Protein 1
Amino acid sequence: MRRRPHALLAPALPLAAMVACYAPALSRGFTSEDFLLIRYLGQHPPWEQGASLFGPWLGIAGIQFFRPVSTLLFALEIAAFGTFARGYLAVHLLVHALAILLVWAIARQLARPLGATIAGLSGAAAALLFALYPLHPNAVVFVASFATLYGGLFALLAFFAYLRYRQESGGKARAFWLLALAAFVLALGSYEAAAVVPVWLVAHDHLVLPSGTRPHRQRIRGWLPFAALLGAYLLLRRHLFGQVVGGYEATRQRLLAPQAASLLRDALLSIQRLHLPRFDAAPSLGTAALALALMTLAPMALFASVPSTRAAARPWLLGWVVMVTAMAPFAFQPVVPASGRYWYIAAAGAALGLAFLAAAIASALPRGGWVVGWLVVAAFTVPWALNLSAQVRHCRAAADLAGAVRVSLLRLPAVSGPRFVTGYPSFLTDAGGVPLAQVFHYGLRDAVTPPFHRPALDIVMLPPLSGNELTPVLRGAPLAAVAAWDPTRSAWRSPDLPPDALPELVTQPDRATPPMGELRLRVSPVAGARFRLLLAAPINGAVFDLQQAPSPQGVLRVPLPLDFLRTNDRLYGSPVYWWVEERDAGGQLIACSRMRLLRRRAWMPGPRDQKRSLSPIE
């Protein structure tokens, strides 16, 4: 049956709105991890190292990502576009457009029992809400968020194909079921958060499908293979990483040892912020609880009191299931615009829930109901569209700032050794300090090396330091070049270096060689003193608080951050520098060691060692 021309306007309008909002980003350059990943995967394409696709992401076990599918797809982008930023942006906008179409199709499938008019409103509203969601630029425009985009696309495809499977019969149903299973495999191989898809299928079969369609026992056969596949995936993760739950360490700890009160608080705040993404005020738990009550109790009262709306209740509830479960892998932590990619899939659930709420309101009013329904949608889409346009501008401003940082660094006079840099902007922030978009959270060194620049500059990242905090660098490498970013001039400058007046913490003599993975220093601790290990490395500068107090003999044991060191070694294979600070109870710096080169043999066994000679630092 030929679709009527006006019916094509339903998916076309959300796509047009998305293109209009994202158009300013097409001239945006790279930022942060964009440089790192394009450099690394360009030098180490996965098809030349096939075994790496079936292990930890980029061969880095400490990060606990398994993303062979999305990594391969992104590597193909790199092979096609190289350093041409617009190519990546065009592809990612296309992937986002396909996701918008899938949200439209999912809503249409769920709304079929509601009639053609309401189904049309539900599909168009869900697609429009998802297209204009204001935190999506972090997933769509930030090139390094490719895993979120591809994983989200495949997860939505699996859900849509499963819905079609439940609405078809015979060979067509089997084909859609196989498509759903294949898409779920691709989703798991792209993005860890796709593991929640089987929950959507179970919720659909046992909450949404009419009770007379088939017995619940028969419905299990549809989703059970997806649950089995998820179990096999979790066993694979255990084999690769030694544990089932992975990702970032802080999130993993929150999931493995959850605190009910903290999770509930974060869930309430996240649900409120997901629907009302404002960051100009601290979120209130009471306001969030009230908002949640209104968003749930009011629709349920409508469904209970108006019979004509009850058909929309189940798909509305399914939207909430999608939203809440999609936030669960991130322990329900509230996000900011610079981490909005974590809510990419959850926003699809919110869009479905709001769309079916609007459809229910429309069906409750015999005359002009569709107008009221669209007014409900407009109450979200209008402020979301304005917010989205602002976030796209922020992403472009962050890329302009990253370009200024890079160009200014290239204009500095050449030096024979490494150049240590500090104070570079990690994020573009608003007046309240909320991170809006990545600038150089990572990737500054990559931005001035091939393929982005030849010859490569030898850049080592320091933590944010100033004043006498730079004393360890002066002690370890008195002739080293140090540059600090000056945000007022948008240029690099030589920092004001203090006189070497701090007491020095000295390393333990060779006769007391510490065990591998540990350093030892001789200290004279002050009452209440705290110690910190600082690292300067090509990947980033890092600071680690030391929890252990010195021994009665004044020996401080310093455990090394092995995950950080292994990640830097994998991505750069370059040296790391270290020193230790001693601060008093008020945080005042009172002593420090000198910066030294950290030899690889100090933390990893094997014959390999850094071949570089840096005698002034060693």
Protein 2
Amino acid sequence: MQDQQLLDEFLAAETEDAVLAALNKRGLLDDPTRWKALGGMPNNQSVVQAQQSTAAAALVEKITNGIDAILMRKVRAAGIDPRDPDKAPGSMTKAVEKFYGDLSDKSREEIRQIAEDSMILYATGTKSRPAISFYDAGEGQHAEDFAKTFCSLIYGSDEGSYKGAVPFAQGRFNMGGTGVLPFCGDGRKMQLIVSRVPDDMCKTPHDWGFTVFCFFPSTSSPSWKYLVGTDGKIMTAGSVPLGLVPKLFAKAGEICKPRERKVPSGTLIKMYDYKAPKSNICGELYRKLEDYLLKPMLPLRVIECRAEYSAKVMQNTIWNRLTAWGKDKLEEGFEDGASIQIKLSTGETIPAEVRVFKILDNDDPEQDAPQTGLRALINGQSHAKRDTQFFKTKAVDKEHIAGSMLVTLDCTALNQTSRNAIFMSNRENFREDPLLQEILKKLQRELRSHEGLQTLNKKRYEEKIANATSDELGISALEELLATDPTLADLFSSMMPGKIAAATKKLNPGDKVEGDPKPEFVGKEFPTYFKRADGMTVVSINLPKDDDARTSFNTDVVNNYFTRPKHAGQVKFMGQLEPTFHLFNGRLTFTFHAPKKAVIGTTFMTQIEISDDAGHGPFKLVVKATITAPREKGEPPPPKPPKEAQDSPSRPNVIEVNRGPDAMPLTIEKEPNTNRLVLAVNRDSKLLEQAKNLKKPEEVPAVEFVFKYGLALIAMGLLENVKHTDEWKNNEEQCRKNIQDHCAGVARVIVPLCLTLPQKLPKAA
């Protein structure tokens, strides 16, 4: 059944109400013969509603399907069966390389051209609630195939999921495209689908097919349904090219007409009243999409067509965010992603890359950099993540750079069984599985021992306290107070070792570390050697039972040699032990873990070969690991002296810093690679300034003393109260933040409480 006019009205409609008006005008909305249940499942809410948690994440699934469709078109047009294991590309990376070449070598203009020809996301509609349209120049679908593709759920046909056996396609579960539906409108949650197969894939005459999805509320059987013709089939609209996308090569800031360019085939999906941010989509929505698409396999063009959101940027391209930051935003050594390789018990390897953002001038050092945390990627798309708290745990211990770290795990090469074990089907969350725990535990070991991260974490800590000073007179007065109050003295001495320390050395901006500076490492594109400092390529190590041991080899290759997309290094292990390893600034470090049942005295030999497809290598290394007795745990701490012996307590490690009037009045810093805590009182706090303004000039020293050491005592009391709890064990950093927040509240009243209230206390008659 053809109905070109109805399609034209759907395309012109910019709100759900306009679509409903077109349906009601024809009596279609209330005609049950014109609607079929999505997926052939009357109770399909359980599938549609249980997908992505955000509007942006749901849109990413449309983009994923678009990339699949484009590559499917390329393969089919080349006369290849996408399911042919011998002729079809074996991965999405290989498919892109086969049909587009090396995209990393293409210019910005060439990438934009590919995006505008292939994938476009654009906004029309109202200022408060846009209609979001997504077009891909992919394989399209015949009208008669809509039921087993666009309109199917879970079950596609007797052959299984439509893309389930296609090795270069990412879609597997046959439901991701419906994730946007809960974010369409507030009532009927509608979307339009228009599609046609390219002529180079089908030589027989064929038309555009179209339908709309609509939600039908009901107390007993609420359901999503799709529109069909009077014959019960998907409607068509002829075969002539349709105006579906904005024009090519729009100028910066130009407001484009949304459907000016006519296309002969492909797929357009229009989502009415979509719950996107109320702004130009090249702003907040663009950033949200980019957060998921760190390095998509194909570029996407994003275009704002609403005149109400006119701005300098009305079009932008999402493409390879990982290489866009460069040296101006990333710390030295991490510009291209320092590589880590995680070897799994399944025999698979997960490449990881570590990037650390610089703290730019005028930036808040406590503010997380964009796109930080741990991200698991498949074909450049984020599938699950952990926030920066992952780097602050004791297992990683990188608190001072955690908010600037981005670690990506490339899970593309994992087999489907492993992927299913660690990812939920919504592509947003990890599944708590033993394989995931193995991955995270091995990654934590590498991050904790990574020499570049250790150095940078220590550097950031030193920068935080670079202007710290200690107050000799104040500390002496505090010592006298502690000597007269056994309760307070016991509190200070009972803190964890190192929390009571000698007076802090005065550090000033510009102070230099003693010793010769280490020369900057400049790596080569390809290695010329892997060897020990003495030139040896064979090393023997002791491997404590049920523990780890590390060994390193020097090299001259760049840090991303093992993870870069082009001419990446490959490592082959021969032997019973296959280590995890990382490469940083001329050191290739292997981490070996002793097998659980290994007998003390047993020696395992691991042969290592390193090469690449550009002809370098193989470089051969040998590690002989001998199982030794387990490491002895540290000596128990000395017994705590009796209370009566505490007449001269050690100085508390309380320092003063200048962090501006709006910063926290007190922060609790952790010294890198230790358990020691430092209480840093902000001398610039506006709360301190307000307290001083309320007192006479001669009372200012007392105000400063009370503010500094009153807050310190309160913080230490709260620390003492929480340090033995499971909460402290599981999330020490959050506990310290909570205490800082409590101290910020106390800071408002600490001075009048200590200096004024005692004078008002009632006295005995």
